[in-house]
Amino acid sequence: MINEGDRAPPIALETSDGRRIDLSRLGGPVVLYFYPKDDTSGCTRQAQDFTALAAQFEAANVPVVGISRDAMAKHEKFIGKYELTVPLVSDEDGSISDAFGTWVQKSMYGRKYMGMERSTFMIGDDGTVLQAWRKVKVPGHAAEVLEAARKAAQ
Prior knowledge:
Order of helices and strands: EEEHHEHEHEEEEH
Structural class: alpha/beta
Distance between the termini: 28 Å
Helix content: 25-40%
Largest sheet: 5 strands, mixed
CATH superfamily: Glutaredoxin
CATH class: Alpha Beta
CATH topology: Glutaredoxin
Strand order of the largest sheet: 5-4-3-8-9
Radius of gyration: 14 Å
Low-confidence stretches: none
Strand content: 25-35%
Number of domains: 1
């Protein structure tokens, strides 16, 4: 499990908008948010909230990237349906979520299963995790991350 102060795994991410983000060579802070599934109510709201603040994240020079285990084709439909501007990464093989410790055992109605823990990480230009949010609640989260990103970018 990755915590604040830890080094982020040296992973290269291919985003839905064609960018490549190498966590071992960043030019500034980056925000990675992990979410369970495209086109579900909480995940849609979270993506819309980050999209609504995308210009402000860009002004702070802090890119935001969403990550789930959905396939890239599903991401593309999700982006198109909701006009999302935040790029998404497909983690179909689970290597990214495993490295960050976001693929966890969950429980619903007494049934245990593995699933994505809604989590966000802000990684500094040196590859250190500046801030980690675990078990994220969607309302107000994107604004909280933006405030932290502005401070980190100063």
